[in-house]
Amino acid sequence: MQKKINKIKGFLYKESKKRGFSSVVFGLSGGIDSAVVAHFCTEVFKDKARAYIMPSLSTNPTNTQDAIKYASSLSLYYEVIDISSVQQSFIQTLGLHNSSYSLHRIGNLCARSRMCILYDMSFLHNSLVIGCSNKSELMLGYGTIYGDLAYSINPIGELYKSEIFALAKIIGVPEYIINKKPSADLFQGQNDEADLGYTYKDIDELLKYIDKGLSKKELLNLGFKLEFVESILNRIKKNKFKLSMPKIAKL
Fold first, then answer.
1. How far apart (Å, rounded) are the C-alpha atoms in residues 126 and 152?
2. Strand pairing partners for 25?
3. Are 182 and 31 in contact (CB under 8 A)?
4. In a domain, 21, yes or no
């Protein structure tokens, strides 16, 4: 794991410098992925790293408190920018009501609002926007296009969620963050594994074989259940477009 730690630090330094930046901005949610990113950005960029904590109407207050506590423990510069008014305006303007579909629309709006703020802060401070999506999320397309999936560079995008947990323990991310149920906190009660229908431990085990190019038949021969395999493969296929640049017509 030490080799990966060194690579992450080198990646952040080299890729930011290559793009002409010496400072960075990122969102800090109180969750494990952004906590890991915060650790490395603080180590590499010192006082030129800026974290933005952006609670919404549905954000669990504990997550906001944990983000503040963790940033303070790192001596990391942070700001809290409440996006509740943006969220409320969206709800009122479109006349959204309390349905499951509306909750996901509102959640996507919150993710995109946060990224708008990060890019505004990046412009204000001449800083690079750093992403916090792990490999499991990227392969599954589990994220909001032009929301949390939008950033300039991503230091943890080649680490599965299970690897993020292992790395977090090594670098000293506190247990009050590590022990939480993974959640994008897009609406009250939301958590990743409930949305996905499976634990990250099980998903990652399958994703590693998919990433090696194994066929559906080969995956089933390894003992994975048909329903599980089809669910994950379908999700990957359906959301693959999220990781592609917009297609431009060749004329």
1. 13
2. 50, 129
3. yes
4. yes
The whole domain housing 68 covers 2-243
Question: Measuring CA to CA, which residue among 89, 54, 65 is closest to residue 184?
Answer: 54
What is the reported pTM? 0.94
CB atoms within 10 A of CB 38: 26
Judge whether 64 lies within some domain: yes
Residue with tokens 């943890």: 156
Q: Average pLDDT in the 127-139 region?
A: 97
Distance from C-alpha of 155 to C-alpha of 34, rounded to nearest angstrom? 11
CB 5 within 8 A of CB 28: no
Phi, psi of 141 (to 5 degrees): 70, 30
Integer Cα distance of 191 and 204 in angstroms: 17
Tell me which of 183 and 72 has the higher pLDDT. 72
13-27: per-residue pLDDT in tens?
999 999 999 999 999
pLDDT of 98 strictly over 70: no
Count how many domains the chain has.
1
In this structure, how many other beta carbons lie within 10 angstroms of the beta carbon of residue 44?
Answer: 18
Determine the Cα–Cα distance for residues 57 and 188; give it in Å rounded to an integer: 9
**Which residue matches tokens 């006349």?**
95
In the chain, what are the helix, strand and coil shares in percent, each to the nearest 5? 60, 5, 35
